[in-house]
Amino acid sequence: MARPKRQDERRRQLVEATAAAIADRGLSDLRLRHIADRAGLSVGSVLYYYPDLDALLVEVHQQVLDQFYVARVAATRACSDPADQLRVLVSQGIPDEPDTTMRAIYELHVASARDSSHATLLTRLWESEVSLYESVLRQGASDGVFALQDDARAVAETVVALEDAFDLHLTGHNTALDRGLAVRRCLSYLAAMTGAPLVGD
Length: 201
Fold this sequence. Notes:
The chain is 75% helix and 0% strand.
C-alpha cells in the first residue's frame, strides 16, 4: 500500500523540479538531465514516471497555474472590502519579484501556440482570473462602493490583460518600468472604472 503514495510523492517532486528548471533555464533550453539534477534523480527515473516529457510539462503547467490562482483567491477572501480586494488582486497579480511560479507560467504559456493542451490551460487561467475580478466588481457595485463606468466583464478582462502585459515585461527584466509603476497603472485604471480611490489613500 505504500508504493502508490511513494509514486505520488515522486511525481510531485518531479513537477516541482521541472518548474524550477524551467524558471532557471527557460523552456527552449530544458533537457531531461536538468530535471533529473533538480530532483536528485537519474534521467532513467524521470522517464520511469514520465516517459512522455510533453505530459510532464502539461502537468507542471496545470500545477503552477493552480498555485497562482489559489493564492489570489485566498488573499482576496482575507479581506471583505471590495476596494481592498481590488488592491490585493493587483498586488497578487504583479508579484514583488517574479518567482519560480511566475517564470514557469510565462515560459509554459509560450507552448500554447503549438500545443492545444497548454492553450486550454492558458484559456482556463484567463477565464478564472477574469471571473474573480468580475465577481469583486459586481459585488462592489451592488454594495454601492463602486460606480462602474463599463460592464464588469469588460473591466475585468482589461485589467487582467494589463497585468499580463506588465508581468511579461517585468519577468523579461525590462528596465524601463518597475513593479510599483505597474501596480499604480492597474489601480489607476480600476479607480477610473469604479470611482473608488484605489491609489494613494
